[in-house]
C-alpha cells in the first residue's frame, strides 16, 4: 500500500515553482527513462496558478503506460512488481480546479475581492481524496491540506496510518506550443506502522489543451522514486531513481460525481 500511495498521490498535489531553463523540462520528459535527480528546482513559495483553460470540473482518466527500474537487477523496489499489474489499466475519478484570491501580505485589513486578483488552483483535498479512494477504497479516511501551507498534505488511513507529503522543491515551464509543464520534488513519510518509512518522489507533468472536448486536455506524466538516506542502498543508487512510472492523463469536462470510479 505504501508503494501505491507513493505513486498515486503525486500528480494532484502539484504546486508552482520557478521558471526552468527553456526546454529543460520538456527535454527531461523526452529522455525517459534516462533520468537522474533534477537539480534546477527551488524551494516552494505559495500555491500553483494553473492556466485558465484548466478551470472547472473534470473526469480524469489516468493510465499507467510504461514503467522502468533503471538500476535493476541490483535494486528493485517492492512496489514495482505490484504496480506492474496496473499497466494499461485506466482508472477514472473526479477532479476540479477553482478560482482563489491571491494572498496579500503586509496588510492589517482584509481588502475587497478584486476579480483581477483571482487565480486558478487545484482543489487538492477533493482531488487527492478521490484519487486515493479509487486505488484503496474505504481504507482512506480523509485528505487534509495544511491551512498554513499548501505544500503539506496528510492522507489519513484506517489502522491509525498516515502519509505525509511535503513539497520541497519545484520548477515550471511553458513551451512555445503552449504546454504547461511542472516538476515537483516531494518528501513522503509513511507513519503508523512498525517502521516509519520515507522517500523522495519527483513528478514531471506536461499539460496540453486540445481542440476537442473528448478529452479537452491531455497530459504526459513521469513519476520518479528516489531512495532516502536511511535506505541501505542509498549510496549505491546515487542520483538515479530506483523506479519510474509514466502516465497518460485525459481530462473530460463537466463529469464530476460523488463516487470515484475505477
From TrEMBL:
InterPro entries: DUF6816 (IPR049213). Keywords: Signal. Residues 1-21 form the signal peptide. Residues 45-252 form the DUF6816 domain. It holds the Pfam family DUF6816. It comes from the Bacteria. This is DUF6816 domain-containing protein. It comes from Plectonema radiosum NIES-515.
